[in-house]
Design a protein that fits this description.
By secondary structure, the protein is of the alpha/beta class. About 40% of the residues lie in helices and about 20% in strands. Strands 3-2-1-4-6-5 form a six-stranded mixed beta sheet, with helices on both faces. Strands 9-8-7-10-11 form a five-stranded mixed beta sheet, sandwiched between helices. Helix 10 crosses helix 11. The protein starts with a strand and ends in a 9-residue tail after the last helix.
C-alpha cells in the first residue's frame, strides 16, 4: 500500500519538512527563521502557529493537497526517558512536549505540530526515536557519585536508523545483532546496540565521551570543579565551555571538521593536526569501551553523521578499531527519511506503535 507522509523537523532557527510517498521523497523544504522572528515569542510553544502557517503555505506552493496525507510525523523532543520506537502523539505525550519535562527545545514542536495538523485532517500523528531514548542497562547508570547517575541523551534517531538500515541490507533482524554505532556531528555519540537496544551510550549533550566540534566530552572532574569555583566564570560560562565552545571550537575556534582537516593535512598546521588526531583517538577509544560492553562480540561498527563524509576521519578510526569488527560507513544523517521510515514500519505492521 502507498502512504503519503508529512515529516516535520523543527530546529532552533529552521523548520525542515519533507513529503514522502512511502520512502520516496516528493519534495522537501528548509524554512529559515531569523533571530528577530524567533525573538517575538516568549516560549518555544508560542512559536507553534507561526511555524504551522509556514508549513501549510509551503504545501500549498507545491500544489500538494494536505488532505491526501495518510500520516504526519514530527521530531521527538525532550520527553521523559522512553524506549526507542514510534509513538503516537497521545494526550499525555502532547502535554509533556508542551511542558518541556526535560527542557524547552525547538524539537518539542515536532510532535505538537504533527498532532495538530493530523487532527485537523483526521490522520494519525507520530514521533520517532527522540533524543531521550533510554534503553541503558542498570550497570551503565552508575557514575561513581550516587547523586549523578549517567543518563541517556544521544542521536537516537540516526543511530537507530542506520542500525536498522544495516540489518535490512544484511537480511537479518536488528534485534539479532550486536553493533557499535558512532554518530559524528556537532556532538559525538557512541552507542552499544545489543539485540535491538542501546544498552550503553555517552551523554553527548552534557559532557561525556569524546569531544566534538562544539562539545567538550568528558573532562578531568577535579580541574572542572576548580574552574567552577575559581570566581573567573559564571555557571553559564562554564556550561558554554562544555556545550558550545568546547571541542574543536575551544582548541581552534572553528566547528568545521573540513577546515581542521585542511589545515592539518594540506597546510601543515601542527596545532590543527594535534587536535584532529586527538578527535579520532577519543572516538576510537570510546568504540573500544562499547566493544567491551558487548563482551567483544561485535558484528559490525557503523560510522555515521556529517563528519563521516571525511575520509581522513574514517580512515584513522578504521586503523584503530578495525581489529574489533568490520566497519561500514553511512555518511550524513537523513533525519527526514528516518522519521518517515519510523512511521512506515508501524503502518506496514513491521513494528507495533509504543505507548508513552
Amino acid at each position: 500500500m502507498s502512504y503519503k507522509i508529512l515529516v516535520i523537523n523543527p530546529g532552533s532557527t529552521s523548520t525542515k519538512i519533507g513529503v514522502y510517498e512511502n520512502e520516496t521523497l516528493l519534495f522537501e523544504e528548509t524554512l529559515r527563521h531569523s533571530t528577530e522572528e524567533i525573538a517575538k515569542y516568549a516560549t518555544i510553544v508560542d512559536q507553534k502557529d507561526f511555524r504551522k502557517e509556514l508549513i501549510v503555505d509551503i504545501l500549498a506552493k507545491n500544489s500538494f493537497d494536505i488532505k491526501s496525507l495518510n500520516v504526519v510525523v514530527g521530531r521527538g523532543g525532550l520527553l521523559k526517558p522512553i524506549p526507542g520506537g514510534t509513538y503516537p502523539v497521545s494526550d499525555a505525550l502532547l502535554a509533556d512536549l508542551k511542558a518541556g519535562v526535560q527542557g524547552q527545545h525547538a524539537s518539542n514542536l515536532g510532535g505538537i505540530l504533527a498532532r495538530e495538523i493530523g487532527d485537523e485532517i483526521g490522520v494519525p500523528s507520530y514521533i520517532v526515536d527522540p533524543v531521550v531514548v533510554d534503553e541503558m542497562e542498570p550497570v551503565a547508570r552508575y557514575s561513581g557519585i550516587p547523586e549523578l547517575p549517567r543518563i541517556s541523551i544521544f542521536h537516537a534517531l540516526n543511530q537507530k536508523a542506520v542500525a536498522k538500515r544495516y540489518a535490512k541490507e544484511q537480511n537479518v533482524s536488528y534485534d539479532s545483532l550486536n553493533l557499535v554505532v558512532v554518530h559524528m556531528g556537532g556532538g559525538v555519540s557512541v552507542g552499544a546496540h545489543k539485540n535491538g537496544k542501546v544498552v550503553d551510550v555517552n551523554n553527548t549533550l552534557d559532557g561525556d565521551g569524546p569531544f566534538s566540534p562544539e562539545r567538550s566530552g568528558g573532562v578531568p572532574a577535579g580541574a572542572l570543579v576548580k574552574m567552577c569555583f575559581s570566581g573567573q566564570y559564571t555557571q553559564a560560562e562554564v556550561y558554554k565551555k562544555i556545550n558550545g565552545k568546547g571541542g574543536l571550537n575551544g582548541y581552534l575556534g572553528t566547528n568545521n571538521m573540513r577546515d581542521v582537516a585542511e589545515r592539518a593535512f594540506e597546510k601543515g598546521d601542527e596545532e590543527a593536526a594535534g587536535v584532529f588526531h586527538a578527535f579520532t583517538y577519543q572516538v576510537a577509544k570510546e568504540v573500544g569501551a562499547m566493544a567491551a560492553v558487548l563482551n567483544g562480540k561485535v558484528d559490525q561498527i557503523l560510522l555515521t553523521g556529517g563528519i563521516a563524509y571525511s575520509d581522513y576521519v574514517t580512515s584513522e578510526i578504521k586503523e584503530k578499531v578495525g581489529f574489533i569488527a568490520p566497519i561500514t560507513v553511512y555518511p550524513g544523517e537523513d533525519e527526514l527519511l528516518a522519521l518517515a521510515q519510523g512511521a512506515l514500519r508501524v503502518l506496514n505492521g513491521e513494528e507495533k506503535p509504543l505507548v508513552y
